[in-house]
Specification:
By secondary structure, this protein is of the alpha+beta class. It has one helix and ten strands, in the order H-E-E-E-E-E-E-E-E-E-E. Bound molecules: copper (II) ion (CU).
Length: about 180
C-alpha cells in the first residue's frame, strides 16, 4: 500500500465512522425525545393518579357514595351508631384537624375510607384501625372507642413530600348511653 492509497483508505474509514456516529447520535436523540414526550404526556394526563376522576365503585357491602365524602364526615345511623367518611388526598385527610370528628365513647362507629388520588394509609393512633385508602374503592372498618379523649388519624403509607401533614382529629366525648 503506497502513501496515496493508504490516505484514501483512511479517509473512507473516517467517513464511515462519522456516518455511524451521526446515525447513533440521531437514534439517541430520538429515543430521549420519545421518552421525554411520553413522560410529559403521562404527567399531563395524570397517569397513575385519579384525582380528577374519582369514582366510588358500587359495592353492596360498602353503602357509601361520593356525596357521603363531601359532607361533614359524621352521620348518625342509629341510637348509638355512627358512620364516618374520610377521604385521603395528597396531603390531607378530609375532614382534617380543622374540623375534628366528634363521637361519643361506647358508640358503634363504622369508618368508610377512600382516596382521591394515590394510596394512603388510614391509621388511628392508639387503636387497631389501620386500612389502606384506595382510589375508587371504599374500605370500611368498625370500632368502638371505650375511652374519651383525643385520637389522631395519620397516614402510614408514604405518599409524597407532604405525607407527614396528613392528620385528622377525633374527639371522643363521654358516653351518650349509660
Ligand atoms: Cu401518606
Amino acid at each position: 500500500m503506497n502513501r496515496t492509497t493508504h490516505d484514501a483508505f483512511e479517509h473512507r474509514f473516517h467517513d464511515a465512522a462519522h456516518r455511524h456516529e451521526r446515525a447513533w447520535v440521531f437514534i439517541s436523540v430520538v429515543m430521549i425525545a420519545v421518552l421525554f414526550i411520553a413522560a410529559v404526556y403521562l404527567v399531563v394526563h395524570d397517569y397513575g393518579v385519579v384525582a380528577k376522576t374519582t369514582r366510588i365503585y358500587a359495592d353492596p357491602n360498602t353503602p357509601a357514595t361520593l356525596a357521603d365524602f363531601q359532607g361533614s364526615g359524621v352521620k348518625q345511623t342509629g341510637p348509638n351508631s355512627y358512620s364516618v367518611y374520610e377521604m385521603g388526598r395528597i396531603w390531607s385527610w378530609t375532614p382534617g384537624t380543622a374540623t375534628p370528628l366528634t363521637l361519643p365513647a361506647g358508640a358503634h362507629v363504622t369508618f368508610y375510607v377512600t382516596s382521591g388520588d394515590v394510596l394512603h394509609g388510614f391509621e388511628i393512633q392508639g387503636t387497631s384501625i389501620n386500612l389502606t385508602a384506595i382510589p375508587g374503592v371504599v374500605g370500611h372498618v368498625s370500632y368502638t372507642f371505650d375511652k374519651p379523649g383525643v385520637y389522631y388519624i395519620i397516614c402510614n403509607e408514604y405518599c409524597g413530600a407532604g405525607h407527614q401533614a396528613m392528620i385528622g382529629k377525633i374527639i371522643i366525648t363521654g358516653r351518650a348511653h349509660a
